[in-house]
């Protein structure tokens, strides 16, 4: 799977931008705050209809503009698929092959991307909500039905929490039973999806981590499931406490992941190097997992992370991905990048202006204003 071209309109600091990409490796070089990360973000947005950097859509729209759009051409299994996302004051409009998709869940999955950025260390050492979001986004790419089940679960959860805020004398136990049944129905589906995903991720990432640590470390990922035995029973047992607190205390909305290196919790006690290698192992495992699930390798976005890795980890990373995935690297300098392939395109980014400075392809074109 590759993205052959990208078109931006009023996205961040780009009023208008047209880019054609190399199918192997694309490197965006420039000083900080020039717009390099915005390119990676736009590709991520085209795939998942949301940013990896902000929850506020307004931040994605150019200054004094009312809407923006990101579009591109995807090539997979010799098939060309145009994709487009427009962000308007009324919401998102997603199109596949120029036809509008009524549900975003039907759009997500046409372009699979893996993003590795400095903030991804939060997957290892951040809050449980960060890890749940990571799991949700990655499962959603390979199993769109998961997004539907998760949406229904979250909708029912919100409704239950709102109902729990009523005065106790006004709460109908029978209606609460109905909400509990719905919560259990969709919650069990969500948990089953997560179990399968985490099991596969654990197996693949353990092998990769063993390689990256040169046989010195054994990585284990644990699905810290909030529901211990029976969701329906535990929800019933927690009802009185939930009514007192006016919130649902049991369910997959409280799940977490735990990472262990040689049986030591790396989130709490691992070194920064171990945490970084663990995050890298997990991200690389996602690549293989998506390939197993879809038959295509995803697009890899490495946003300002190469300088964070020592020379050996850089070599290991490039050896594992180059030739498999179409890879995008953003960086402030090429000095620390070693053993790059001959087949690639290098773009120079200055104040939102992009220029091709090196390319194997003579017909690579850039149109920006």
Automatic annotation (TrEMBL):
Protein location: Cytoplasm
Entry binding sites for ATP: 30-37
InterPro entries membership: DNA-binding_RecF, DNA-binding_RecF_CS, P-loop_NTPase, RecF/RecN/SMC_N, RecF_2
Keyword annotations from UniProtKB, A to Z: ATP-binding, Cytoplasm, DNA damage, DNA repair, DNA replication, DNA-binding, Nucleotide-binding, SOS response
A single cellular component GO annotation: cytoplasm
Boundaries of every RecF/RecN/SMC N-terminal domain copy: 3-353
Origin: domain of life: Bacteria
Reported function: The RecF protein is involved in DNA metabolism; it is required for DNA replication and normal SOS inducibility. RecF binds preferentially to single-stranded, linear DNA. It also seems to bind ATP.
Family to which this protein belongs: Belongs to the RecF family.
Name recorded for this polypeptide: DNA replication and repair protein RecF
Organism for this UniProt entry: Pseudolactococcus chungangensis CAU 28 = DSM 22330
């Amino acid at each position: 799977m590759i993205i052959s071209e990208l078109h931006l309109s009023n996205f961040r600091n780009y009023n208008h931008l047209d880019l054609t990409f190399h199918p192997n490796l694309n490197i965006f070089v420039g000083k900080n705050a020039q717009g390099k990360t915005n390119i990676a973000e736009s590709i991520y947005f085209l795939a998942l209809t949301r940013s990896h950097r902000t929850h506020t859509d307004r931040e994605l729209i150019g200054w004094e503009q009312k809407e923006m759009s990101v579009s591109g051409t995807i090539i997979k299994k010799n098939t060309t698929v145009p994709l487009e996302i427009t962000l308007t004051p009324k919401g998102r409009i997603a199109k596949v092959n120029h036809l509008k998709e009524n549900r975003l869940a039907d759009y997500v999955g046409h372009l699979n991307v893996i993003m590795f950025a400095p903030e991804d260390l939060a997957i290892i050492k951040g809050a449980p909500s960060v890890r749940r979001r990571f799991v949700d986004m990655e499962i959603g790419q390979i199993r769109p039905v998961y997004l539907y089940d998760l949406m229904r679960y979250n909708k029912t959860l919100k409704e239950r929490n709102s109902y729990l805020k009523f005065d106790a004398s006004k709460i109908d136990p029978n209606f609460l039973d109905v909400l509990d049944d719905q919560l259990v129905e969709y919650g069990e589906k969500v948990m089953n999806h997560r179990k399968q995903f985490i099991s596969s991720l654990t197996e693949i990432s353990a092998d990769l981590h063993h390689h990256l640590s040169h046989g010195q470390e054994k990585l284990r990922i644990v699905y810290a499931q909030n529901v211990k035995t029976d969701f329906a029973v535990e929800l019933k047992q927690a009802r009185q406490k939930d009514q007192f607190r006016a919130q649902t205390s049991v369910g997959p909305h409280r799940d977490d992941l735990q990472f262990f290196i040689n049986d030591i919790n790396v989130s709490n006690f691992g070194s920064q190097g171990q945490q970084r290698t663990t995050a890298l192992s997990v991200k690389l495992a996602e690549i293989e997992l998506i390939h197993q699930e879809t038959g295509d390798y995803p697009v890899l976005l490495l946003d300002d992370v190469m300088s964070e890795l020592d020379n050996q980890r850089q070599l290991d990373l490039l050896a594992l991905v180059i030739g498999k995935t179409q890879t995008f690297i953003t960086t402030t300098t090429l000095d620390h990048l070693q053993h790059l392939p001959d087949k690639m395109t290098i773009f120079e980014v200055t104040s939102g202006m992009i220029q091709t400075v090196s390319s194997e392809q003579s017909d690579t074109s850039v149109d920006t204003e």
